[in-house]
Amino acid sequence: MTPAQGLCNTRGHRVVAGVASMSAGPFRVQRERDCCRGSFPAMASPCEVLVAGEDLALAERVTARVCDEALRIERKFSRYRDDNVVARINGAQGAPVETDEETDRLLGFADTLHDMSGGRFDITSGVLRGAWRFDGSDRVPTRAQVDALLPLMGWQRVERSPGRLRLPAGMELDFGGIGKEYAVDRCLRLADELAGVPVLVNFGGDLACNGGRFPGASAREWQVGVESPDGGVARLLGLRAGAMATSGDARRFLLKDGKRYPHILDARTGWPVMDAPRSVTVFAASCVEAGSLATLAMLHGAGAGAFLEGQGVRFWLAPSAGG
Amino acid sequence: MSNPVRSRLALATASLLGAGMAQAGDGSWQIDSSILYYGEQDRVTAVEPVVNARKDLGDEEALNLKLVVDSLTGASHNGAPVRNYAQTFSGPSGSSEYTVPAGEVPLDDSFHDTRGSVSVNWDKPLENRLWKRSLGFNVSSEYDFFSLGVNGALTRDFNKRNTSLTVGLGYEADTIKPVGGVPVPLSEMGEDEPAQSADESRDVTDLLVGITQVINRSTVMQFNYNLSTSSGYHNDPYKIVAVDGERDEYWYESRPDARTKHAFYWETKHALSSGDIIDGSYRFMTDDWGVSSHTVDLRYRWMLGNDWYVEPHARWYTQSEADFYVESLPAPPKPGMDASADYRLGALTDTTFGAKVGKQLGEGSEVSARLESFQQSGDSEAADLSAIIFEVGYSFKW
């Protein structure tokens, strides 16, 4: 999912290969005309850090810190690992599991989103992967296949208290819906502390920037390209401070009998929100807020635009293909 | 924000991320605990538990508490040289006597002590986070010694935080209260001479100037200069100096009543692309007692994978003797002179070799064990000793 990219003029001069400190993997930092760009892969996305000015050493330190933090969050909350808190919870077979303070905060946030969406957003709905594979094919599951999974879902069945969580056996937690946005905000905060100049953190199109004055005389802002669902940059937006996140992916759908099934699933039914826009991009103060508003909007289906109008936020919506 | 969705989301976001751009502390304490065993062959054995607790209060503000307990038992050199005949000494209070056989280092085996010390430090960034100040307080107590100290430091970041300059000041007031009172320096041991006083005091003032420089993303270097001046009572009240003659005489030692030390320190840490870390340091110290010392310390942290590491360590230390150091005096001391036979003021060379093994268990959590061998040699037989150091450590978030 790469519907947006941070742009600063891309006339590269010097490429420095770096390896982040002890815990982190490799990243690259290169100087461009008015900023330095650090990049590394994480969370199944291309990740980048843009640091205003031409101080390559500073950009290296900022990227190292961001890369460390992104990989830390990925290691801790990815459901693809067998050595983290998610694996412990999912593998506990109904036994209570101790949770740390950061995990509790994410669970608390997921709880709020579940409540605000009337149960449509649910971090226990990952088991639906067993029925839905949005690979562009026509393999729409049967009602029975989906219904078989519903008993393994339901946030309301999770017992939770500070420092402790009990997930009924067979159920799974998946922080995929909020983890990346959380990582963007956390990383921007760390980058801001270190840099003292404008920084933009962009993880696969979910991005945030800290504001502040660009070095040099000309006051400027980041140029953020919002990609259209069909590819290509649909529009270029100026962003000085705040965040942007996108929900929806034009490339992930099923098509059967002329009906398009988008990958946005309603956790109450296990079925796609059929008339949802192809994607929604929302601007807000933090990436977590932007991502949450985008998700909530998608779950409103055809009412996504109206919902966002009501929130008084800047947004950009790619209408549904059928609509 | 009147919109209910947005205000609720903003609230939930604030509790997820913490308010504002400042990094909030996660509310937990980082606890580093260890217990160290130090055992000299035939002499002192020390057991030292240490607990250090650090709480991140957010926005680079932090509180640090440290508790150390030292428990020492065994025998320590009393200052007299090795003789080819037996020597008899009276104990520190003049009450008990002990005899050391010919050819052995005279050790006073009544040596036992428990020391407790507590220190508190509070770091807080000042405006625009480029300045940081640190305030500290410490107290240390054992049965014949009490010390109170305060310290403060200011750190300023420059050069986009690549350079930090620290200036610190410390003051410490010590009280020494030996068993049986403070002996008169250069008085003869065993005489019924009244004690000079019940206790004595010493003031120590320290000035520290330090620069930390980030060389590149994997290398950081530090330079420190430390000026330490002390005035007051510097003697070891239990140490004696022997006077050669037909009959051995033992006199209480006497040291100058002031000392000024200059120390220069350089350290470099370098991270290799494999994740291994090389850490090397050198320290030079010189003082107005004529002692100067060199310390070289090298560590290599070798990352083994699966969060295990092995860290070999080597340390080499050498010092020259103080101007008033003697192994024994050829004739009774003249009034006003200084003399000490404490081997710690003589020429010494120490080497330490060992390794630490550790495993990181998670964020802020680690277990480790360290085993080292310590060898010392010097001008006198009393200075020759070997020791084993063993330490286990456990760090965790609480």
Characterise the protein shown here.
The complex is a heterodimer of chains A (323) and B (398). By secondary structure, chain A is an alpha+beta fold. Chain A has helices spanning 56-77, 85-90, 101-116, 143-149, 176-195, 287-299, 304-311, and strands at residues 4-7, 15-19, 26-31, 35-42, 45-52, 96-98, 159-161, 164-166, 199-203, 206-210, 222-227, 233-239, 241-247, 253-256, 259-262, 265-266, 271-272, 279-284, 315-318. Chain A has a 9-stranded antiparallel sheet, with helices on one face. In chain A, strands 1-11-12 form a 3-stranded antiparallel sheet, with no helix packed on it. In chain A, a hairpin with a 2-residue loop joins strand 7 (159-161) and strand 8. The longest helix of chain A has 22 residues, at 56-77. The two termini of chain A are 22 Å apart. Chain B has 398 residues and is mainly beta. The two termini of chain B are 37 Å apart. A 16-stranded antiparallel barrel of chain B has the order 1-2-3-6-7-8-9-10-11-14-15-16-17-18-19-20. Chain B is elongated and about 100 Å long. Chain B has one helix at 4-17, and strands spanning 29-40, 45-58, 61-77, 87-90, 97-100, 107-125, 131-142, 145-158, 163-176, 200-216, 219-232, 240-243, 249-252, 258-271, 277-287, 292-305, 308-319, 348-362, 365-378, 385-397. In chain B, 4% of the residues lie in helices and 61% in strands. The model of chain B is unreliable at 19-25 (pLDDT under 50). Chain B contains 1 helix and 20 strands. In chain B, strand 15 and strand 16 form a beta hairpin. The chains are: A alpha+beta (323), B mainly beta (398).
Radius of gyration of chain B: 25 Å
| pLDDT averaged residue by residue of chain A | 84
Biggest β-sheet description of chain A? 9 strands, antiparallel
Question: CA-to-CA gap between the ends of chain B?
Answer: 37 Å
Count all strands of chain A and give the number. Answer: 19
pLDDT < 50 runs, ≥5 residues of chain B: 19-25
Spatial strand arrangement across the major sheet of chain A? 2-3-4-5-9-10-13-18-19
Number of helices of chain B: 1
Percent of residues in beta strands of chain A: 25-35%
Structure class of chain A: alpha+beta
Cα distance spanning the termini of chain A: 22 Å
